[in-house]
Write a structure and sequence with these properties.
- This is Homocitrate synthase.
- Its EC number is 2.3.3.14.
- The chain has 424 residues and is an alpha/beta fold.
- It contains 17 helices and 10 strands.
- It folds into 2 domains: 288 residues, Aldolase class I (TIM Barrel); 90 residues, no CATH class.
- The strands form 2 sheets. Strands 1-2-3-4-5-6-7-8 form an 8-stranded parallel β-barrel, surrounded by 6 helices.
- The longest helix has 18 residues.
């Protein structure tokens, strides 16, 4: 009965990985510090909705997405910007109450400027819902922003202190967020963060607001934040908030965690301002495969589908792990290797022979299709997977149609090549 023991099965899998895969990542991993604990903050329902292309979801859709977050084990979520208008405030109250009533393991937070007009609505949402809500109060910190706004360093410090003091007076826990942190001066960050912490902030957030950061820049910045927090002598957690203007948001998030950040932010499907935020689905897949976070990725497709439908955001076919093409091949060499693995009855092998992300981790499976780049193995696999005989004539008929096509054949086209009338 040892085969039914999860521990034994896991040990067997690890042995196979050592035997069949030479993983250079493990060697490179020895050179970097590993995070002690990883937390996730989902920004889909606030920063994600600032995308210029999304539809604003209704309350029922937001509630559904909230439950999908909980199913994934996401730790915290920005549930809205209550200072925006009364409708958003009402949604925030309802979402906070849903967390409480359904016992969801999500800690809610709300974004707002360092201004009473945004802080007081967060306090109202907390009071009306009866649920503790962290106030994520943001303030621009880079020289370019200071120049445009006419802010000096003293203004930043004074504004931070006043905002955090008001929020704490209203009974709110505070995450103090510096915007454009990745282009801010270290002495300004030290002064502003120290002042915010002394005023009562118990989280600080480093924001790559315009997607400027590189992994090494991220590491240097988080190292500074760790030093600043240590110098205050206060127990303060550090967050990282990334954008993907240079498409480095995921690796930057991993670099931030390695350097000492406690929590990283993301949005489902990477929606958000301009080209978007760190894509949550890709972040979670990488954290899982690195062994940094234990998350059930089988819930990930439903999470992404819910966000896609609620925001009218299509999932690209090429989206890693989630897209239609993620575990699909029409290439002859690839299909032949996958088919050989499948014929052994070994799904572990089939899910790794031509994939860096195991399909079964997401509740998916390998798909072999037939097109112009296919070989006979593709046709054989298609016939087998669809419960049809694999005689030479059928294979040849499919291959003839495929080689004369300029695209991957769909089921109707393959059946037509076989002379079968689809009765559907």
């Amino acid at each position: 009965m040892a085969g039914n023991n999860p521990t034994t099965a896991n040990e067997h899998e690890q042995t196979r990985e050592r035997e069949l895969l030479y993983d250079w990542n493990l060697i490179g991993e020895e050179t970097i510090p590993l995070p002690k604990n990883v937390e996730i903050d989902d920004e889909t329902l606030r920063d994600g909705l600032q995308s210029p292309s999304v539809r604003q979801p209704n309350l029922d859709e937001k509630l559904d997405i909230l439950h999908r977050m909980a199913a994934l084990g996401i730790h915290a979520a920005d549930i809205g910007y209550p200072g925006a208008d009364p409708v958003v405030l009402g949604h925030v109250v309802a979402l906070a109450q849903e967390i409480e009533n359904e016992n969801l393991s999500i800690e809610p937070n709300c974004a707002g400027r360092t201004h009473p007009a945004d802080i007081l609505p967060i306090a109202e949402a907390q009071q009306r819902s009866g649920v503790a809500i962290e106030a994520s109060l943001f303030l621009g910190s880079s020289p370019i922003r200071q120049f445009v706004e006419g802010w000096d360093d003293e203004f930043l410090v004074r504004t931070a202190v006043d905002a955090v003091t008001l929020a704490r007076k209203e009974g709110l826990e505070v995450m103090f967020v510096t915007e454009d942190t990745t282009r801010a001066k270290p002495e300004v960050l030290r002064a502003v963060y120290t002042a915010a912490i002394e005023a009562g902030a118990r989280r600080i957030c480093l924001s790559d607001t315009v997607g400027h950061a590189t992994p090494w820049g991220t590491r240097a910045l988080v190292n500074l934040a760790v030093e600043i927090v240590a110098d205050t002598g206060v127990d303060v957690k550090i967050d990282w908030h990334g954008h993907r203007d240079r498409n480095l948001s995921v690796i930057n998030s991993l670099a931030a965690l390695s350097a000492g950040a406690d929590r990283v932010h993301g949005c489902g499907l990477g929606i958000g301002e301009r080209v978007g935020n760190t894509p949550m689905e890709i972040l979670l897949v990488n954290l899982k495969l690195l062994g940094w976070l234990d998350v059930d990725l089988r819930e990930l497709p439903a999470y992404c589908e819910a966000i896609s439908e609620a925001t009218d955001t299509p999932v690209p076919n090429s989206c890693p792990a989630i897209g239609k093409d993620a575990f699909e091949t029409s290439t002859g060499v690839h299909a032949a290797a996958v088919l050989k693995a499948l014929k052994t009855g070994d799904t572990w092998l089939a899910n790794r022979i031509y994939s860096g992300v195991p399909a079964d981790e997401l509740g998916r499976e390998q798909t072999i299709t037939v097109g112009p780049m296919s070989g006979k193995a593709n046709a054989t696999a298609w016939l087998t997977m669809h419960g049809r005989g694999c005689d030479d004539e059928s294979v040849d008929q499919i291959m003839k149609a495929a080689k004369n096509a300029d695209h991957v054949l769909n089921e109707e086209e393959i059946l037509a090549a076989l002379g079968v009338v689809d009765a559907r």
